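Renewal narrative, Specific Aim 1. Our central claim is that a sequence can be written position by position from structural information alone. The example that follows is taken directly from our test logs and has not been curated for this report. It begins with the structure tokens describing the chain, in the order in which they were read.
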């Protein structure tokens, strides 16, 4: 089962930026833990600070992978283009956030992506990614909704 973990802007700074919010571990080291924890999954990871590059990646894998775990960072709250890309693809997307966005700035309480995602996981630190992968691991292909967003 091919699953993409896709991270948006500023998430390349995990382990360095705002450690009180995002922790002290880099995503690259956490990704190695995820690969060990989910050996039956073919996990790939991609990060970009550029909206168009994220859209291109969604288009690239959005008709062939079984799932996408997507942390859109600040684009979550602003990008109609990313929401349109998620709506256009067949692969189910789970939106994740490391911090509890509802305990932060009011503008972070609205997700442009959530209406087109299978679900949203927020506030569990890096474990938010593991929870999303557990969903894909436990669901049979028909339950995941591959080929159908709902």
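The sequence written for that structure reads:
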């Amino acid at each position: 089962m091919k699953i993409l973990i896709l991270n948006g802007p500023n998430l390349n700074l995990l382990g360095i930026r705002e450690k009180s919010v995002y922790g002290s571990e880099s995503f690259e080291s956490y990704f190695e833990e995820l690969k060990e924890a989910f050996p039956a999954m073919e996990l790939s990871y991609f990060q970009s600070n550029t909206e168009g590059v994220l859209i291109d990646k969604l288009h690239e894998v959005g008709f062939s992978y079984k799932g996408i775990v997507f942390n859109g960072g600040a684009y979550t709250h602003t990008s109609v283009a990313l929401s349109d890309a998620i709506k256009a693809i067949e692969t189910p997307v789970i939106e994740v956030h490391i911090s509890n966005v509802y305990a932060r700035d009011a503008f972070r309480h609205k997700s442009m992506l959530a209406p087109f995602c299978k679900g949203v996981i927020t506030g569990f630190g890096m474990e938010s990614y593991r929870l999303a992968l557990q969903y894909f691991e436990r669901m049979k292909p028909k339950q995941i909704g591959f080929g159908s967003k709902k």
